Amino acid sequence: MAAGAFLFSACSKETYEPDNKDAIIHITVLDEQEKPLAGIPVMIYDEKGYEEFKQNKPVSPAGATMTLPDGKVNYRLPYQKWFESGSRTVTFVVKLEEDSKDHRVWTISRTIKASEQVKIEFKLDKDPTLSEGTALDMYNENNGKTLFGNAIYIDAEGKFIGNNRYSFVDAGQLSDLNALGALNLEKLSGEIAVQPQHGYFVCKDISLMEFTSGKWGIAIASEFSKIYVTDWLKKDGKTVGASIRYVIQQPEKHGLPEWETVYNVTLKEGKSVTIPLPEKSNDSECATPQNNMLQFSFGSDHVTIQITDPEVKVGKQYRVYIRSGVYYTEIKLQATA
Fold first, then answer.
1. DSSP letters along 270-316, please?
2. 286-293 contacts, C-beta under 8 A, 24 or more apart
3. How far, in Å, CA of 251 to CA of 185, rounded?
4. What are the tens digits of pLDDT across the range 175-233?
5. Closest among 322, 268, 272 to 293, alpha carbons compared
6. Cα 158–231–115 angle (5° rounding)?
7. How many Cβ atoms are within 10 Å of 235's Cβ, its own excluded?
């Protein structure tokens, strides 16, 4: 409770007179047996604040409240603070400390308009950031146009649109978000049909690279999202969007060198260097913008790169991209004496 009191003192500096254009949020927090939980702090984040919160940075919420003895509380989002520029994506967070090192986090995101009455219900049965993901209602372009990642939206025809910034892969019909397994980059598309009970991989186009083989890799220094469409959103019998759950993950290294590792290549000793690869990799390849200057020889768990540039000299660098499966890294070779 002391932590909750501090939270409220840090978030209660601004005051606004009630306005009929304010949005009212009806929040309920339940335990595993669906019994009401009193005294549970709930933090409220705007779009920017929640992005910072996801990076584990100590960022103050835009607002906060605490459940009453019946496990419920109403929270007002002032029009002047939240909605003067239109609808907003608001994220509600419950964060409970289990000990000095561990905590559990539940999050629910909603696209909210001025004057709306919105119900938010938390059930603290397990940590959805690990198992169920963050919930988000995505209204289509004719009904508020909820943005995911500040770019992705659902169009009037019921398709995810990447807006020339994101690409999708439909992983097919699944039971839940957990069933969406290892990253798959086959059949990437900048737009794709939204289908309930289907899982999707979502990647930023800037993080993707197509290699000579025609296979794609995602940079290990980037991130990607897993999305599961739980159901359509309906209003007055019409489809107005879709409810999703999502997680944002970083690619695994899979034994690849760290991003932008520099390898020294001694000119007096064959002008070559051996780079370790994942032990079980049988699908690896290299690419370089310096064509005809490097030669690659693959072994079962390594690649040997030889500098064949006739104008090589001490200090000159060569950029190399190494793909293993669906992941790739970028390294540099530097010629040394």
1. TTEEEEE--TT--SEEEE-SSTTSEEEEE-SSEEEEEE--TT--TT-
2. 286/320, 286/321, 286/322, 286/323, 287/209, 287/211, 287/212, 287/320, 287/321, 287/323, 288/318, 288/319, 288/320, 288/321, 289/319, 290/318, 290/319, 293/318
3. 12
4. 888 888 899 999 999 999 999 999 999 999 999 999 999 999 999 999 999 999 999 99
5. 272
6. 85
7. 10
